[in-house]
Write a structure and sequence with these properties.
Blueprint: E1 3-7, H1 12-24, E2 28-33, H2 46-50, E3 55-59, H3 65-75, E4 79-82, H4 89-94, H5 96-116, E5 122-126, H6 153-172, E6 175-181, E7 184-185, H7 194-206, E8 213-216, E9 222-227, H8 228-240, E10 248-251, E11 255-258, H9 259-268, E12 276-279, E13 291-292, H10 297-303, H11 311-327
Parallel strand pairs: 1-2, 1-4, 2-3, 4-5, 5-6, 6-10, 7-9, 8-12, 9-13
Antiparallel strand pairs: 9-11
Helix pairs in contact: 1-8, 3-5, 5-6, 7-9, 7-11
Length: 335
């Protein structure tokens, strides 16, 4: 039976990918996470893990080479989805060294450990649309050939990740494909991301736990939105439909709007009508990747993938996720 290893399984994307693979394949799934990682995103998987029912957890850390060797020896994967990262762009401004170390050196550690063990899996290296950074209007929609203009230490770290994937594919004939996923969200989205903190604040306001004021940063950024459940379906197709080592692909949704439009939509889903908006300077980035609109024709033509979940469903599912979570906790921190 085929085996898949997911690094970063406790994150939003990793947990949804595990759900998808369990439902749509007969693979055994190995999820690598740090021993201290919170398990709330994978609570639906724990019974399977306890019963060793196609689902296994492995302790591992991208910054600990030995732990990666153990995880790879234990899983012997046919497929690797490398999703683990310091993935919060805003955090990277205050923690640039940790971001660069985890995302660049950590990815190098993983690829070196695969090479050291002489394994030959199909490998997905998850880069990010943030590598394109500040894109001039004449380069929109963004193709894979668009030049990189990083707008944060996070985007610099993902450029390193991106280049490492392509280098190891070319230099060592490793079967690596790179994705540059544009904005994707849905249930389990971390509250440090813009649409998720908005949904969380609305849920807290509805529950009477904070005043009816939503704290915001830059609302003028223009983005294309995708659902995480469409994203993980794309990742599975990446490694199973005529995979071409060394290729990089843009992947994204088909609905674009400003962050303000997205916020207005979320507020419109609320049961309340007295919600106000307050811009806070500490929520503004020194530089913002404010024009993120992808051209995904290369990936669509290669795999036949197309986003299926509407922006409206993504937003209501995200808001309901936070409503449910807020209802079960006494206090939630606003990020």
């Amino acid at each position: 039976m085929p085996r898949a290893l997911i690094t970063g399984i406790t994150g939003m994307v990793g947990s949804h990918l595990a759900d998808y693979l369990l439902e749509n394949t007969d693979w055994d799934i190995y999820g690598m996470c740090r021993w201290r990682s919170p398990l709330n995103n994978v609570s639906q998987l724990l019974e399977r893990v306890n019963n060793k029912d196609r689902m296994f957890f492995l302790n591992g850390d991208l910054n600990d080479f030995t732990s990666l060797l153990h995880a790879l020896k234990d899983s012997e994967p046919d497929y690797i989805f490398h999703l683990a990262a310091q993935s919060f762009p805003k955090t990277s401004f205050t923690s640039p060294i940790d971001t660069l170390t985890t995302n660049i050196i950590g990815t190098c550690n993983l690829l070196e450990s695969i090479k050291t063990l002489d394994l030959n899996p199909l490998i997905h290296v998850c880069s990010s649309s943030e590598v394109f950074g500040r894109v001039p209007p004449n380069k929109v929609p963004i193709t894979e050939d668009c030049s990189f203009h990083p707008a944060s230490p996070y985007s610099i770290s993902k450029i390193g990740t991106d280049y490492l994937g392509k280098f190891y594919a070319e230099a060592y004939n490793m079967k690596i494909m790179v994705t540059r996923m544009f904005t994707h969200t849905g249930p389990r989205r971390g509250d440090v991301f813009v649409e998720s903190t908005f949904a969380k604040q609305i849920a807290l306001i509805e529950a009477g736990k904070i005043k009816p004021v939503i704290r915001v940063g830059n609302l003028n950024s223009y983005r294309t939105w995708a659902d995480v459940r469409d994203a993980v379906r794309a990742y599975h197709m990446l490694l199973t439909i005529n995979p071409i080592p060394g290729e990089a692909y843009n992947i994204g949704g088909n609905f674009s709007c400003t962050v303000k439009d997205m916020l207005d939509h979320l507020i419109g889903l609320s049961t309340l009508r007295n919600i106000k908006i307050r811009v806070e300077t500490d929520r503004l980035r020194p530089i913002d990747a404010d024009l993120q609109i992808p051209n995904c024709s290369k990936f669509k033509n290669h795999t036949g993938w197309y986003p299926e979940i509407s922006f409206e469903k993504t937003m209501i599912d995200l808001l309901n996720y936070w409503r449910d979570r807020v209802s079960k906790t006494e206090v939630e921190l606003i990020r």
